[in-house]
Write a structure and sequence with these properties.
The complex is a heterodimer.
Chain A (H helix, E strand, L loop, with lengths): L11 H42 L5 H15 L4 H25 L3 H43 L2 H7 L4 H38 L6 H11 L2 H27 L8 H29 L1
Chain B lengths: L2 H8 L3 E9 L7 E10 L4 E5 L6 H8 L7 E6 L2 E2 L8 H4 L2 E4 L11 H12 L4 H14 L15 H13 L5 E4 L8 H16 L10 E6 L11 E6 L2 E6 L1 H6 L3 H8 L1
Parallel strand pairs in B: 3-8, 3-9, 6-7, 7-8
Antiparallel strand pairs in B: 1-2, 1-4, 4-5, 9-10
Helix pairs in contact in B: 4-5, 4-6, 5-6
Classes of the chains: A mainly alpha, B alpha/beta.
């Protein structure tokens, strides 16, 4: 029996209503994004101003906080990054060797591909995302809780700038942490990459492998790597601190603020990474 | 007394003209409008108001933590709020004790008390330790000195908030509902200690402290505070002494006096 068309097409009025509804939702999202950009931008400028203006204020209080943040966003994550380095080396070399072996060029391009994939792209980005997951989320929760429990007001009552006390150490700690961890991740991945190539019987000597690496690297890689990783640290710290600290929060709003902070940090890091790709391609 | 010193004594500790107090959670909402009030040095005011009526927002505005929605507020002759580094020394003459202490959760009780000293003063670590030890002894907090706030009972956290506010030897102290949730022993200690501060305590160099406390029950403060005011709806009623408060026909004043 032939199927009978039971759903009538929506009348023109209803279609207009849907269109208006979705246009409204999109407009709302765009407006919210612009507001968030404005808020985060202003917060970043304030933080930058405080770093410059209060560089030598209350060093005995702020220095230990910076040290704690470097430890939290750097030193304590080293074991996790060593594991990530071994895994990433296996991932990249495993795929590369299987592809290049088919064209008989595995021993000629391994070093170049490692530089292209690990040094320029995956190393910094993976480090940023792992630090965001481990420390950035904790930032939002800690600062959101501090905000909800009135610790920010307590600092203001004591004449202590909450940005100086809470945000500046996190920004410096995360920038230093991501920069250092990226170096460790890259070094670990390049080392483990050779190990995996050796295990897969790729006929390449250590000297040849490291010559390929050195040949594929330029001064621009070092400069942009440093700039990119420090910028990632700055962005993640600013976005997560902004969502935890910059607006009055109730305890039940902290989880939503954390989700927003993670999403915005990921988007901001990818956009920044795209900008660096353009710089690589044009310089 | 020399002429400049006499002039200094005549400067009100706090002066409010046409002040509108905004709520901290929603700055578009005001909890008090057109507040005109003068607090003179050495006075001990209690501001009564029912719960959820905006006492904390009122006190936060006096403390320069929330900007007034309208009107003028001055503290010892200087306009508030003060955020500039150049006027910070003046700002630090004002201390605030929050309801529950609002200590920093990542620091121990002793570290919380030391924080303003370490941040603002250029004194040595030894001097800071001595001052913190004095304050811990004075507020009977020594057994809890090395515990984080989450491991200390609320009544002791409140005392730690008081010790922290006294660390920089303020001239005016604002206290948000200091007796809320305290048992008789703690409440008696607070009333006696605050009375001692208004008379001049050695920890503050014998200088009488100006006090403003908020409360949702005025009865414990009779005989301790010497001035009474009240928040009724969005109106601020300056009642004067206890006799004037007792004579008030306002229902909210009567209920606060009768408990």
């Amino acid at each position: 029996m032939p199927e009978v068309e039971t759903t009538a097409p929506a009348p023109p009025q209803a279609r207009t209503g849907f269109a208006r509804f979705y246009a409204g939702r999109i407009g709302h999202r765009v407006f919210a994004l612009l507001l968030a950009l404005h808020g985060v931008g202003a917060f970043a400028l304030i933080t930058f101003g405080v770093i410059l203006r209060k560089f030598s204020v209350a060093r005995s209080v702020v220095r230990p906080l910076v040290g704690r943040e470097i430890s939290r966003a750097g030193v304590k994550l080293v074991p996790m990054f060593l594991f990530a380095a071994v895994a990433l080396g296996f991932l990249v070399i495993g795929q590369t060797v299987s592809l290049l072996t088919r064209v008989g060029a595995a021993n000629n391009y391994l070093g170049s591909i490692m530089v292209l994939v690990v040094v320029r792209e995956l190393g910094p980005l993976l480090t940023a995302f792992l630090v965001l997951a481990r420390v950035g989320t904790a930032n939002v929760v800690e600062l959101g809780t501090a905000r909800a429990l009135g610790e920010v007001e307590a600092l203001e009552a004591l004449g202590i700038d909450p940005v100086h006390y809470f945000v500046v150490p996190r920004v410096i700690g995360m920038a230093v942490g991501i920069f250092s961890l990226t170096i460790y991740l890259i070094l670990g991945t390049l080392g483990s990459g050779y190990l995996w190539a050796f295990v897969q019987d790729v006929p390449i000597q250590p000297g040849d492998y490291f010559n390929q690496l050195a040949g594929a690297l330029s001064y621009l890689d070092f400069v942009l790597l440093a700039l990119k990783t420090i910028a990632f640290g700055f962005i993640i710290a600013i976005v997560t601190c902004y969502h935890g600290l910059a607006q009055p929060l109730q305890l039940d709003q902290i989880s939503r603020a954390t989700v927003r902070a993670v999403a915005q940090s990921v988007i901001a890091c990818i956009l920044l990474d795209s900008l660096f790709i353009i710089i690589y391609l044009t310089v | 007394m020399s002429a400049p010193a006499a002039n200094l004594n005549r400067i009100p500790a706090l002066e409010l003209h046409g002040l509108a107090v905004a709520a901290m959670q929603n700055p578009n909402v005001t909890v008090a409008n057109d507040v005109n009030w003068t607090v003179n040095p050495g006075e001990f005011w209690v501001v009564g108001a029912p719960q959820q009526s905006g006492k904390s927002d009122f006190l936060m505005t006096l403390g320069g933590i929330i900007s007034p929605a309208a009107g003028d507020l001055s503290f010892l002759g200087e306009p508030m709020p003060i955020f500039e580094e150049s006027r910070m020394a003046h700002r630090l003459k004002l201390g605030v004790v929050f309801d529950g202490g609002q200590l920093l959760g990542s620091l121990t009780v002793a570290e919380n008390i030391a924080l303003p000293l370490r941040y603002h003063s250029r004194t040595s670590a030894q001097e800071i330790t001595t001052r913190v030890t004095e304050l811990l002894d004075l507020t009977e907090l020594t057994p809890w000195a090395n515990r984080t706030p989450v491991n200390v009972a609320r009544s002791w956290r409140q005392r730690a908030g008081l010790a922290r506010a006294l660390a920089l030897a303020p001239e005016v102290l604002l206290l948000d509902s200091p007796l809320t949730g305290l048992d008789v022993r703690h409440a008696t200690w607070w009333l006696g200690f605050l009375g001692g501060l208004t008379r001049g305590h050695p920890i503050l160099g014998e200088k009488p402290l100006t006090l403003v406390v908020t409360a949702d029950d005025l009865r414990p403060w009779r005989g301790h505070a010497n001035r009474v005011a009240c928040l009724k709806g969005k109106h601020f009623l300056v009642l004067g002494d206890w006799a004037a408060a007792a004579a008030s026909q306002e229902s909210v004043v009567k209920s606060l006096l009768q408990g």
